[in-house]
Specification:
Blueprint (H helix, E strand, L loop, with lengths): L3 E5 L3 H13 L3 E5 L2 H10 L4 E5 L7 H10 L5 E6 L4 H10 L3 E4 L4 H15 L14 E4 L4 E4 L2 E3 L3 H12 L5 E2 H9 L8 H16 L5 E5 L3 E5 L4
Parallel strand pairs: 1-2, 1-3, 3-4, 4-5
Antiparallel strand pairs: 6-7, 7-8, 9-11, 10-11
GO cellular component, one term: cytosol
Organism: Nocardioides marinus
Protein name: DNA-binding response OmpR family regulator
Length: 229
Amino acid sequence: MEQRVLVVEDEEDIAFPLVRTLEREGYEVSWVDSGEKALADVAGTPTDVMILDLGLPDMDGLEVCKKAREAGFGGAIMIVTARAGELDRVVGLDTGADDYLSKPFGLAELQARVRALLRRTHGVPREEMNGDPEGLHIDVAARRVFAGETEVPLTGKEFDVLNILVANRDKVVSRGRLMADVWDENWYGSTKTLDVTIGRLRQKLDTAGVIEKVVAVRGVGFRLEMPSA
């Protein structure tokens, strides 16, 4: 099956070369010019990579990224933008993006970034895993997570949450500690952010066939544990 890429860009002179280049690479490519269309598209069609411009006419691309992740979109998101500041890059990655490419950029670089994202995110489907669950391996220095030989694609926040849970296997980690350590002790946003992150993390670990489960302890926090026999 062809891997599908969605280009979210409102400027035709930028979108068309991207679409043609990606199609020549053998991808199935679709193009939309607004945030609402992007969210509707990924909600209805399996998508491997979303190439997302931040300067959209109807909503900021960061909001599109956030809403897509909250709705359960598990594909890779690469932000493409003229905003080159470090703060914008960090905010984008924290919102759920996997990569960040500043304009202007070369098409060869974009192709290489897309290939890298697909290597990270295109794991082996569960039905092809011969029914064998995989052990969880985490490389803290490289900030990479593996299920057997398959890398599990995680955003920065997902990795940080999992890293804390792994360090406290079979112990309950409070919601307060996770919010303080992963976000900031002065975070004033909704703690629903943690629940959304946990939900995405569970989905990715389950899809990769990881044995261990992230279990919620009502009113307290979360625990990473092996399932009972």
